[in-house]
Amino acid sequence: MTIIPTIIEQHAEEAAFLWLQREAAVHDPHYDLKDLAKLEDRIEAHIDGLLIAGDAGWGFCQQAIQLEEPGEVFAAAVLCLGSGEKQRLEEVISAACTANENWRGLLSATGWLGKDQLDSLLADLFKSEQAEKKRLGVGACAIHRHNPGDALAESFEDPEALFQARAFRAVGELKRRDLLADLQPYVESENNITRFWAAWSAVLLGDRKTLDILFPFSLQESPQQERAIQLIFRVLNDQQSQIYLNELTQEPSCFRQAVIASGVTGDPLHIPWLIKLTQTPELARVAGEAFAMITGVDIAFEDLEGEWPEGFEAGPTENPEDDDVEMDPDEDLPWPNPELISNWWNSNKGNFRNGTRYLVGKPITEEQCQHVLRYGYQRQRAAAALELALMHPDEPLFNVCAPGFRQKQLLGLK
Questions:
Q1: Is 377 helix (H, G, I), strand (E, B) or coil?
Q2: What is the pLDDT of residues 368-379, one digit of tens each?
Q3: How confident is the model at residue 97 (pLDDT cuts 50, 70, 90)?
């Protein structure tokens, strides 16, 4: 077989680049499962090219991981995990340990493994004395929603907070109710990330007393803030929900989170408030998403969009003196037209009842959640997965970030 180095190098570069796109896509408001699977087909094509190239393909990936970037780690990991080359895996693990983002690339690659490959990998990882391999084993089990047995509880003692927190998170994702009591000491941890994930899993497993530990995270700007909101406002009753929502609205820095929370509640009671907020540029798009989360209307598809407000700026600007480099959090959301949104609601509000929780246009039932899980957009699918996990105390949380082909198999889709 003739090896063309420039083609093999392109396969390595494209696989890494497309994985980065996929990392964003799994949380994207306009990506659905079909879109995710199409993107992954492109990744697979480049991985296949590297595999066909044999040692030459690995050689390019081996060079690329020296860049210590997550996409390159992912591509190299998929290659060596698929081939079972243990020495190559050692090199990838070493590269993955240089940064949290790189470790995420390695973990993501384990999601591409079939059951037999996963079982073989886990057997090696869990018998190892290396902490990194045990951590990889727990992370791979979480992605596949595979019960790692005693290894999960053993990870509670991990000296690194991030990996300890990953173990706590896996308890909830895997519905390890047998470990709920073991979580309790950690919900009072002084470390924010370990305290959060211990409390998150405890609430997901039915411990409502831990809500008092979890709620302060909804008031603090952090990567955990929205995750807290997404769970808290799904388990509160109407009265509690209104009290917690009022607390969010009293904090100026949390007003955006209050808008998100109103969509999580699913109660049409909040619709007039959301429509009013579509007139406020800073909140219009997120208010539109909350409106859609309740009503199911597709603002872009149903021509309810407006224009970008004149003079409004969001995200980094071209001004070199502007120190604000934060990305626009609503970049991929459509601009709702307040008048059109209001007209739509006036025509359709008779189909909704205050006090009933809705998800994407219909009352929250198992049937509706399963429908959204199959055909909704990624953020809507994540909401449906949480709702189903709360309905079924012993069933794992469906992983909407898993490889699309595996999700489709689990959902009975072609």
A1: strand
A2: 999 999 999 999
A3: very high
